[in-house]
Design a protein that fits this description.
single chain, binds glutathione, two-stranded antiparallel sheet, 8 helices
Length: 235
């Protein structure tokens, strides 16, 4: 049987792969890693190769040698199963709550902050966020704060869990756009802790060394598409 292999995208583009990679590493599961360059123009050719063994033709994919697991959340659940459930809360109610946060993120977070792309977290120049985006973020911060109030000691549910890993790329996106978190002190402390986690730091250090992937519409003002927003304080 061949060794387990995780196919991941480039570190500054592949937020779904980051989640799966974090969970597998934290579980202690042993795997080889294969980088799939999902930047254009090679993106389509490379994803077609993935499509030969994985129906969605996307990354991440984990090939255990016996099973192809082709979704980040399924890989994260597998990571948790492979370490006796250590990456989800033991308590059934807390576990359901954690899974709600995980499912919300996996389903797109109701499109909150969708114009703050993962790629833009690594840009040297950051645009100021619109009021609507700050309101979106506040909604999210309120949710994090309430979760941390109820269960959190350090991480969302006390010990680090799949919920923290699932939200890690969002934390990267928001933290790097210098959002105001003063009203959410527990959230601010949790974001700092998560960003300083050795596995998160390892991923980000590699992402920061890569050439940027620019999206043409990053600086376009959504209220007035003819106007370009200028760099904000994080820029
Ligand atoms: N629901 C999938 C989403 C995976 C996904 O969208 N991956 C991106 C890279 S982060 C990709 O490979 N996209 C290929 C495409 O859209 O053609 C998961 O959670 O694994």
């Amino acid at each position: 049987m061949s060794r387990p292999r995780l196919y991941v995208g480039t570190r500054n583009a592949s937020s779904w792969a980051m989640r799966a990679w974090l969970a597998l590493k934290a579980s202690g599961y042993d795997f080889d890693e294969e980088l799939v360059d999902i930047r254009r123009p090679q993106r389509f050719r490379n994803l077609a190769v993935i499509g030969e063994f994985s129906p969605p033709a996307a990354v991440p994919v984990l090939d255990t040698g016996r099973t192809v697991i082709y979704d980040s959340n399924a890989i994260m659940e597998f990571a948790n199963d492979s370490c006796d459930g250590r990456l989800l809360p033991r308590d059934i109610e807390a576990r359901a709550h954690a899974r709600s946060l995980i499912a919300w993120q996996h389903a797109g977070l109701s499109s909150l902050c969708h114009r703050i792309s993962f790629e833009s977290a690594f840009y040297p120049l950051k645009r100021p966020l619109t009021d609507a985006e700050q309101d979106d973020c506040n909604r999210l911060f309120q949710c994090y704060e309430a979760t941390l109030d109820r269960y959190g000691d350090a991480y969302l549910f006390g010990d680090i869990s799949l919920a923290d890993f699932m939200h890690a790329p969002t934390v990267v996106r928001l933290a790097r756009h210098s959002l105001d978190t003063l009203a959410w002190p527990r959230t601010e402390a949790w974001m700092r802790l998560l960003l300083a986690h050795p596995l998160v730091s390892e991923w980000l250090a590699e992402a920061d060394r890569l050439p940027h992937i620019w999206y043409d519409d990053y600086l376009v003002d959504p209220r007035d598409p003819a106007t370009l927003l200028t760099a904000g304080p994080g820029g």
